[in-house]
Amino acid sequence: MARQPSTSSITGIIFCVTTTTGWADHALACLREAGYRSGGARRTVVEHLDGQDCCLSAQETHDQIVGRGTKVGIASVYRVLDLLAAQGLLTRVDLGDGVARYESARPGGRHHHHLVCGDCGKVEAFEDDSLERELSCVADRLGYAMDAHDVVLRGACDDCRTVDRKSTSSTTRG
Ligand SMILES: [Zn+2]
Ligand SMILES: [Zn+2]
């Protein structure tokens, strides 16, 4: 498929690098250096992930790309995600439900954690500087050299909580 998405004009040098435009160029350059061609499904998947704030599964990545009108096979998406993860360009996010999700590993990118809704399955990102400081303090106190950490909050998202409240309360006031 030679067809490019309509936003394919980003081929020049970008001086004003934001974290969102930087990663795709970086990832495609790394693939080329490692001897992989950076066209076709690889470019499609990389450019799609570049627009994400948080993690996606292979199925979600595939469905969203196809939903935008670009043809890509699910097997290709799996292969590209595996390759990018093996190259250290994606972080694998394990939220304990057996589904592998991936998000771009951005040099200097914002570090975040996840909220997982047990009702609808929605995954959201959150950041909290005081939590980060507290985790560092805990590691220090335990004499632990912390390389990384994961924090997952589980429960019901705002939408599902609202539905719950409506269905359990018979005296909802307007
Ligand atoms: Zn995330
Ligand atoms: Zn929910």
Compact description:
The chain is α+β, with helices and mostly antiparallel strands.
Q: Keywords for this structure?
A:
2 domains, flat, alpha+beta, three-stranded mixed β-sheet, Arc Repressor Mutant, subunit A, binds zinc ion, three-stranded antiparallel β-sheet, disordered N terminus, Dna Ligase, domain 1, 174 residues
Radius of gyration: 19 Å
Q: Structural class from helices and strands?
A: alpha+beta
Strand-residue proportion: 5-15%
The percent range for helix content is 40-55%
Unreliable spans? 1-20
- CATH topology of the largest domain, anyone? Arc Repressor Mutant, subunit A
Mean pLDDT: 85
Number of strands: 6
Describe the structure.
The protein has 6 helices and 6 strands, in the order H-H-E-H-H-E-E-E-E-H-E-H. The chain is an alpha+beta fold and 174 residues long. The strands form 2 sheets. The protein has a 3-stranded antiparallel beta sheet. It has a 3-stranded mixed beta sheet with strand order 5-4-6, with no helix packed on it. A hairpin with a 5-residue loop joins strand 4 and strand 5. Helix 1 packs antiparallel against helix 2 and helix 2 packs across helix 4. The longest helix has 15 residues. Bound molecules: zinc ion (ZN) (2 copies).
SSE blueprint:
Layout (H helix, E strand, L loop, with lengths): L18 H15 L6 H11 L5 E2 H10 L6 H13 L3 E5 L5 E5 L8 E5 L5 E4 L2 H13 L10 E4 L2 H11 L6
Parallel strand pairs: 4-6
Antiparallel strand pairs: 1-3, 2-3, 4-5
The protein binds zinc ion (2 copies).
